[in-house]
Amino acid sequence: MAHHHDHGHDHDGHGHHGHGHTDIDWAEMAPLLESQAELFTPLYEQALSWLAKEVTDPGLVVDAGSGPGVISCLFAETFPGARIVAVDGSRPLLERARDRAARQGAADRFDILAGELPGVLDELDYPADLLWASRSVHHLGDQSAALAALAARLAPGGTLAVMEGGLPARFLPRDIGFGRPGLQARIDVVEEEWFARMRAELPGSVAHTEDWPALLASAGLHHTRSRTFLLDLPAPATDRARAYVVASLGRIREAMAERLDAEDRATLDRLLDPDDRASLHHRPDVFVLAAHTVHTAVRPV
């Protein structure tokens, strides 16, 4: 069950896996996924700090859709007394997660579990005190049923934390000096249309109003809360941030450009051309600004 949906809705790049993109070589993608997740570490650290105030001294923390384990290992740092289980459909990415945990000295309390969400969670040895699902639920056809399945794996009093929603990322000024101003806003429209098609084509797809607190409540959970966390990496971009922007817009150019008009395609081509001094590779005004929302709810005791 592997997914890497990096178009707008998954601009965190840590490669959570939701449904069978079997043509993707995850071992080959892993270094890029890790680098992108590391770029977003300040945002994740804010989110985990907030969760740590909500969830005290958990025994088991599960990262459902862990990718190469960057966030899983942040959980190991945040909760030094907890056992961490990274769950994903890609064993090569899980091996990266285990290696990362070993480098950080957490190997003795770090486990991996490979398989399809949410069913694979039935293989957990005991219920989770904190179950984290970052942009993996939207890759499951029936999101309400998926949340109910995740909630069923919680211990009484356990917390489900779902990262879904937020705002589209921004990398460039509205007017970049060539092409029509507002390129990223037009890309947003194309991405939303792509996302709607992706959701509609999932096995067992069910349309739900994406009111995440209401969906969590319908899964039998209570005390719903939501909070949004910001990644603000201002210009001039670091090499890692610049590489992330190039990779993100490069994937958009490859996957969606036919849905943009000729002028916007030409603008993207200039932005991606390393020989063009106005490209992303050289511009001083490249930045990364992103907002991700976390929704939490608690299983009744």
TrEMBL record:
Molecular function terms, GO-annotated: methyltransferase activity
UniProt keyword annotations, A-Z: Methyltransferase, Transferase
Claim: Methyltransferase is one of the keywords in the record: yes
Pfam families per UniProt: Methyltransf_12 (PF08242)
CDD domains: AdoMet_MTases
Keyword Methyltransferase: yes
Gene Ontology biological process terms, A to Z: methylation
Designated name of the protein: Class I SAM-dependent methyltransferase
Native species: Streptomyces fimbriatus
Taxonomic lineage of the native organism: Bacteria, Bacillati, Actinomycetota, Actinomycetes, Kitasatosporales
